[in-house]
Amino acid sequence: MRENIKVNGQLRVYLAWPILLSMFFISGNIAVAFINGLAALVLMPFTLCYMVIAIWIYLYRRKRMLGGLVEFSSGYAWIQKQFLAEMELPYALADEDGRLLWMNQAFQDVLDEVRGSKKNLLALFPEVTKTDLATDNETSRVHTSFGEHKFRLDIRPIFVSSSEEEENEAVVGRQKMLAVYLFDETEILRYRQEIDDEKMVAGLIYLDNYEEALESVEEVRRSLLTALIDRKINKYIGSMDGVVKKMEKDKYFFTIKQKYVEQIQEERFSILEDVKAVNIGNEMAVTLSIGMGMGGDTYSQNYDYARMAIDMALGRGGDQAVLKDGSKTQYYGGKSQQLEKATRVKARVKAHALRELMETKDRLLIMGHKISDVDSFGAAIGIYRIATALNKKSHIIINDVTTSVQPMMDRFTENPEYPEDLFLTGSQAAELVDGNTMLVVVDVNRPSITEAPELLRMVKTIVVLDHHRQSSEIISNAVLSYVEPYASSACEMVAEVLQYIADGIKIKSAEADAMYAGIVIDTQNFTNQTGVRTFEAAAFLRRNGADVTRVRKLFRDDMTEYKARAAAIASAEVYREAFSIGVCPAEGLQSPTIVGAQAANELLEIKGIKASVVLTEYHNTIYLSARSIDEVNVQVMMEQLGGGGHRSIAGAQLQGVTVEEAKRRVKDVIDQMLQKGDIA
Fold it and tell me: How many CB atoms lie under 10 A from the CB of residue 309?
């Protein structure tokens, strides 16, 4: 068998060295002969003797040397096999399908509880997929668990070759095996979790209606109300080994360890309901807003996250908690309706700030949201009137005119008192942008659904006026942001700003009609989200020429829309005895989404219905219009479907799904909210 052994590579060269040295000595002997013949004769016997010994070693001793090499390699292979078998790192070999062919003792110890000879990686470790086994070049890395331990599973391909030529061939077509390594990560992950649990979470608690609640209770009991609230908050934070510090009469700062965050989430911030339960004769329940920040690189960054979270909680109407974990934001609560504030101080301050910004610019661009509605249009007209009163050139951006807006818009395009370039598309407005341009965004605070999102990147001075609750997606580069969820409509907010921004602004009847119509449509004829300030804004517009009859005539439906709305109502099904879900047909309608929204409003008139959702398929997109009266926060519902809006008026858009799939997703969200207690 030894005679059949082939010697290749470096070993073959090494065994031929005596012959090579013989050639060297012969060359040296010839060189000496040229110098001195006698010396060459003396050296020749030694050279011949060396050649004989070298040939003898190469021809006869070579076989014994090869035998020694075989014995050495056999011993080395045995040692290597023992090393792999006794190696403490779990190691195994598997075929391309994941079947284990061989494993060392450490790997067997891990799988000690598994019985049977047929062991497959796919069955043993569910996290391993066929894609991980199909790797040809790189090592696949999978994190998995087995029993009480957590492992990192490395799968590395090994290609089997029988000759040197095959080693140089392409990988394709060669037999492949898989080397499998198990790295126990149990302790590392446990230590990492302990480090995470000890991290600091910063939080802020604001009392939403502190002043109003105090005014609703007798003066002698006010200190008791404050003390009870302080006690509730201190007890809640103290139960988690946290520290709370009262910064102002209605503001608290607290810090807790991160390990308690999961507990708070499971309880869904029970402090929100505990504080509302405090009653010593106060007519108004006290509500909280909580902002928590975690996941930052430093303590100061966590505090910044908490500041962002509390701003978002207040911007969404209060009575809720917002947890910001790095780029991830979660919302809790927000069940109650935010109370309207009687004071107009904020409106006056924002109006003066808006005027200061306008006076520094030469041109104003005004835009609302996509598929513009009457409220968005009316608010834009109000800002146009302000800009005109301050002698500023302004334009309103509208790309697609809906049937609800068209009648009102015709009153301006056909009126010679208004410039021909009053209404522009987004691309036309982009050509006018320069350093002295200001952009005012009305009735929307999400950049992705504005009429022309590209303008938000082009214009440096941006102002936002909106009445919708804020979501995680906001216009972050706004110089001035006036977002009031308690307001009934954007037109109401603009009407208040008009009264404070300058003296003697004259509003024309068409402009008053547009703003009045926005309030009427968004409040559903003053029946939804209506407060004292809503009627005051409407009265202001009536004094400036708004005509109720004229507005009503402008928004009468044609027969096709009326039938489509009736069909949507007829198709509605009642889910969970309290939710109405219908489908609005889009065929033959110019603006089917508007009709769908109208149908959702009418479904609320049915007894026992807490919320309504109407689905409209239009341009390969499913549009969802959600409405409620007071028991359900449809904004939270639509946010889970990628949308948003107001507490009682919200919507969402779904792409790549059918109507039936969209209905199923709506029902799933309702089930989740019922399970979590977000809906009573």
Answer: 27
Q: Which residues of 479-495 are buried (b: 16+ CB within 10 A; e: fewer)?
A: ebbbbbbbbbbbbbbbb
How many C-alpha atoms does 299 have within 13 Å on its Cβ side?
Answer: 7
Closest by CA to 482, choosing from 304, 290, 315, is 315
**What is the dihedral angle through the alpha carbons of 210, 215, 220, 223, rounded to the nearest 10 degrees?**
0
Amino acid identity of residue 402, one-letter, is T
- b/e map of 175-191 (b: 16 or more CB within 10 Å)? ebbbebbbebbeeeeee
Q: What is the DSSP string of 393-430?
A: EEEEE-SS--TTTHHHHHHHHT-TTS-TTSEE-HHHHH
- The closest of 202, 206, 205, 229 to 217, measured between CA atoms, is 229
How distant, in Å, are the alpha carbons of 195, 197, 243 from that of 295?
A: 12, 11, 19
Return the structure tokens found at 402.
Answer: 């809906």
Long-range contacts, stretch 667-676, CB < 8 angstroms, 24+ apart: 667/575, 667/581, 669/637, 669/640, 669/641, 670/575, 670/576, 670/579, 670/637, 671/576, 672/640, 673/636, 673/637, 674/576, 676/268
| pLDDT of res. 172 | 47
Question: Of 243-257, 517-531, 646-660, where does the model show the most confidence?
Answer: 243-257
The DSSP call for residue 221 is G
Is the pLDDT assigned to residue 171 strictly greater than 50? no
R_g (Cα) of the chain, nearest Å: 40
**3 state SS for 60-74:** HHHHHHHHHHHHHHH
pLDDT tens per residue across span 194-226? 888 899 999 999 998 888 888 888 888 889 999
| 400 or 25, higher pLDDT | 400
Say if CB 468 and CB 341 are below 8 A apart: no
How far is residue 228's CA from residue 279's CA, in Å, rounded to a whole number? Answer: 9
Return the residue matching tokens 């390969």: 620
pLDDT in tens, 436-462: 999 999 999 889 889 999 999 999 999
Structure tokens at 407: 């009648």
| DSSP letter assigned to residue 460 | S
Residue pLDDT, tens place only, 465-485? 998 877 778 888 899 999 888
**Whole-number Cα distances in Å, 597 to 8, 89, 399, 553:** 83, 64, 20, 19
Q: Taking each helix axis from N to C terminus, what angle separates 509-522 and 490-501, rounded to the nearest 10 degrees?
A: 140
What type of residue is 272?
A: L
Placement of tokens 């409220």 in the chain? 375
Count of CB atoms within 10 A of residue 112's CB?
Answer: 9
Q: Using a cut of 0.70, tell me whether the model's pTM lies above it.
A: no
Pick the closest to residue 348 from 496, 155, 140, 564 (CA basis). Answer: 496
Q: Please enumerate in sequence order all residues whose Cβ is within 8 A of that of 230, keeping only pairs 6 or more positions apart, or say none.
A: 246
* CA-to-CA separations, 51 to 44, 56, 613, in angstroms, rounded: 11, 8, 102
Determine whether 555 is exposed, middle or buried from the number of CB atoms within 10 Å of its CB (0-12, 13-18, 19+): middle
**Residue 523: what are its φ and ψ, rounded to 5°?**
-95, 0
Lowest-pLDDT range of 151-155, 174-178, 212-216: 174-178
The DSSP line for 328-359 is EEEEEE--SPPPPPS--HHHHHHHHHHHHHHH
